Every structure is written in structure tokens, then in C-alpha cells.
Amino acid sequence: MSKIIVVGANHAGTACINTICDNYKDHEVVVYDRNSDISFLACGMALWIGKQISKPDGLFYASKESLEAKGAKVHMEAEITDIDFDKKLVKGQFKDGTKIEDNYDKLILATGSTPVEIPVPGKDLENVQYVKLFQNAKDVVEKLKDPSIKKIAVLGSGYIGVELAEAFQLQGREVVLIDMLETILGTHFDKDFNIRMQNLLESKGIKMAMGERVEEYIGKDGKVAAVKTDKATHEVDMIISCVGFRPNSLLGKDKLETFKNGAYVVNKKQETSIKDVYAIGDCATVYDNSIDDVNYIALATNALRSGIVGAHNASGKELESLGVQGSSGIMLYDLRMVGTGLTVEKAKGYGIETEVASFKDMQKPAFMENTENAEVDIRIVYRKDNRQIVGAQMISEYDMSGAIHMFSLAIYKKVTIDELALLDLFFMPHFNQPYNYISVAALNSLK
Ligand SMILES: Cc1cc2nc3c(=O)[nH]c(=O)nc-3n(C[C@H](O)[C@H](O)[C@H](O)COP(=O)(O)OP(=O)(O)OC[C@H]3O[C@@H](n4cnc5c(N)ncnc54)[C@H](O)[C@@H]3O)c2cc1C
Hints:
Layout: E1 3-7, H1 11-23, E2 28-32, H2 45-49, H3 64-69, E3 73-75, E4 78-84, E5 89-94, E6 99-103, E7 106-109, E8 113-115, E9 128-130, H4 134-143, E10 151-155, H5 159-170, E11 174-179, H6 191-203, E12 207-210, E13 214-220, E14 223-229, E15 233-235, E16 238-241, E17 245-247, E18 277-279, E19 286-288, E20 293-295, H7 300-314, E21 328-332, E22 335-341, H8 344-349, E23 354-362, E24 375-383, E25 389-396, H9 403-413, H10 417-421, H11 437-443
Parallel strand pairs: 1-2, 1-7, 2-3, 7-18, 9-16, 10-11, 10-16, 11-12
Antiparallel strand pairs: 4-5, 5-6, 8-17, 13-14, 14-15, 19-20, 21-22, 22-25, 23-24, 24-25
Helix pairs in contact: 1-7
The site of flavin-adenine dinucleotide has 32 residues, from helix 1, strand 4 and helix 7.
């Protein structure tokens, strides 16, 4: 029997604690988390703010009580501030000041990530908001009850920024989306895909301030009143800053090996550079199969799987992660984009020469009347040297999202574009066309 301490009980921590408690009942599991809640699905934040869901209750799937019912000892509002890796000792304190000192046999760090703050004058003004925790979401929802908050600047046009811009627009606010990049969504999708989404946001009245660098938040009576960039001054009543997240790896700083952005470097068993210390979720690296190398991709999906893998290894059963492809999806208004692996632009950044197989077609045959149907645009990215698929993107108003999972597997299994061309894909008019756009795109690239 081992005593396993888990620091951090959000998505990675919860998956890990559940896995240990469900499978290895003889281990003692002790949990410390500095927050007061567990398992907040931040992905629901924009939906709650935009009133696409009426309440936040369903955004939690675990609690101190549910984990304790399985046998874990869970300490909330308990921050770990120091670790003595030689003595296998964690130290910290509860919110009321009571000290914590606890020994472990195995330690699992699941401390996640924290929002990046733009270091500009005015950053402490009232109504400058960050978006990560349930408490942040509650603050924003509360502030939106104030009708004097009319104009909102969203800083950062990644997934989270664009979703929030949509949510505020749906709530009748004037929204300006500000980013240093020229198009929204950065390198998640290729530029022409991003531009289609950007045009949609613009058509809904969201103002685009692309290619602008934030220089200052200007205040009036202690509250934010404007954002000054290198190109313009935007009058605002609230700022939502979501310019990125950095791994929260302070506890292992200068002791554990870290990646270029500070994430704990882990192997496929989630082991860090110190024996018996594991790291999972947003505080750790992943193995990225699209570049065959270590990378940092902060996603809840990666957090869950790394939590499961870390739990088995810390409990004594060897299990290797399969690595990840960075699969993701987004839906704004009625437009959906899903992607996995590398885009053409991202591949270029890694020095990988690629070619693309593209096609555009209706999801279902034209003879299908009175049924939901829409055009789907697909782009498959493959390596020029060995023709292996390294990425795929799709955009449509139709829900074609399930197909991206096959591309995730294709990247993991190193399938070539030529193999994909002749793959057995079913046809049935309710679902698709006899010449499936996936096959046609790949067939057009056959050599
Ligand atoms: C607005 C938003 C939308 C998102 N949407 C999606 C989405 O649609 N799909 C997706 O896959 N991902 C999404 N993500 C990303 C996803 O939320 C993260 O990848 C995920 O939360 C990572 O889980 P984690 O458990 O590793 O870390 P975190 O969620 O950051 O949790 C870390 C935990 O550690 C605790 N902790 C930290 N330091 C200490 C300490 N010193 N002592 C004690 N406790 C500590 C914290 O209190 C926290 O509970 C979104 C994120 C945001 C912010």
C-alpha cells in the first residue's frame, strides 16, 4: 500500500483520483486543492454568459463528497506552497491559516494553468476580468446585470476569446475583439478557415481590432474606461482578458525538468524528472504525434487522459499514454470548425513540408429533400516526404464533427493519404454521399 498525494483536483486531478479509488482500493489517496470547488467545466462559461444554458449547475461532475465516498481524503481551500522532494514532504496552508505538512510515497502534481496577464498600466482597474475559474464566470454574469456595462473588449481571439465575444454579442453588448494577430483563432486552423469564422463574427456586429497590440487600460473613477492599443483607443466598460494560459509549475520550479514554457516535462507514463513524482494535465507536457515530439497542448481532454495514465502508473501498473493530436472543435452561431494535428501554417513553423487534399461538397445527396443538409469543406494535410497524414480541418453548418476522430486516429497510426483514398467508408443517403468528400479529397491526391 502506498500513500499517494494529489495536488490539484480539477479535471486532471479528478480523473486521477477516480481512477485510483476505483481500481486500487488499498492505496491511501490524499488530495489538496486551493479552490473551493472541483471539476468546473470552463468550456460552459461562454454558454452560461451567453444564456445558451440557464444555470451553471450542470458544469460540475464531481465534488469533495463524491471523491470522499470513494475513499479519498479531500482537503479544499488547502494550498500547497512548498515541496521537499528529498524528504517526500508537501507543505502549505489552509485558507484559515492552519499549516499543512504531509508525507507521500507518490506525488501527483495536477496544478493546471493560470491566465496570462498583459503587463500594462491599468491592469488592476475594476472590470478587468480574467476567465478561468467558476468564480470568474460568476463575476462576469453578475456584472452583466448592470446595464451600464454596454461596451466590452475581449482581448485575445483564441477559442475562448471568440466564444466569449459571441456570448456578449448575444447579450446585446457592443463587442470589440482585439488581437495582435491579423486573423482570429491563430494557428488552430489555416487562415482561410479562420477568415470565414471572422467574417461571420463581423457580420453579427462584433468589431474586429486585429493586428493591434494592447498598451494600456485607461481608467475613470477606478473603473476601466478604454483600452489603448498601438493603433487605436477603444472605449469600453469591461475588459475580458483571455490572451492565453501558462502552466502552473511554481511548486517544482528549479527542481523538476521543465519545457520551454515552464510545463513539467513528463514521459509517456506521466513521470517527471524526479522518481515517484508525476505531473498530469495543463501543468505538464504531452507527446504530440503530429510532430513526433514533446509539446504543450492545454486541453481538458488531454488532462483527463493524462490523469488516468498517471493514476495507473503511480498505483503500480505500468501504462503508457498514446500521445495526442491536439484535436479540437468550435461552434459560433451556426458555423462549426473541427480540426486535429497540424495545419499547413503550423507545419511550416516546424519545418515540415506538406501538401493538402481538399474538397467541398454537400453532406447529403441533392435529391434528399426536407432534411438538414449543408456544404462541408475539408482540408487534409499530409507530409510531402512520406505522404503520412499529419492534420485535417473541416468547416460546415452541418454537424460533421464525428469525422475528425478518424483523422486523429489516422495521425496516431501514421496512415498515408493514399491509404485513406481507398478506405471503406459507408454510404447511405440519410448520412452522406456515395462519393464521400473525405474519399474524393484523398482520391484527388492519389499518385
Ligand atoms: C474558458 C475556458 C474554456 C475552455 N474550453 C475547453 C474546451 O471546450 N475543451 C477542452 O478540451 N478544454 C477547454 N478548456 C481548457 C481546460 O479547461 C483545461 O485544459 C483544463 O481545465 C485543465 O485541467 P487541469 O486539471 O490540468 O488544470 P486546472 O483546470 O487548471 O486545475 C488545476 C487545479 O489545481 C489547483 N491548484 C493549483 N495550484 C495549487 C496549489 N499550489 N495547491 C493546491 N491546489 C492547487 C487549482 O485550484 C485547480 O483546481 C477551456 C478553458 C477555459 C479557461
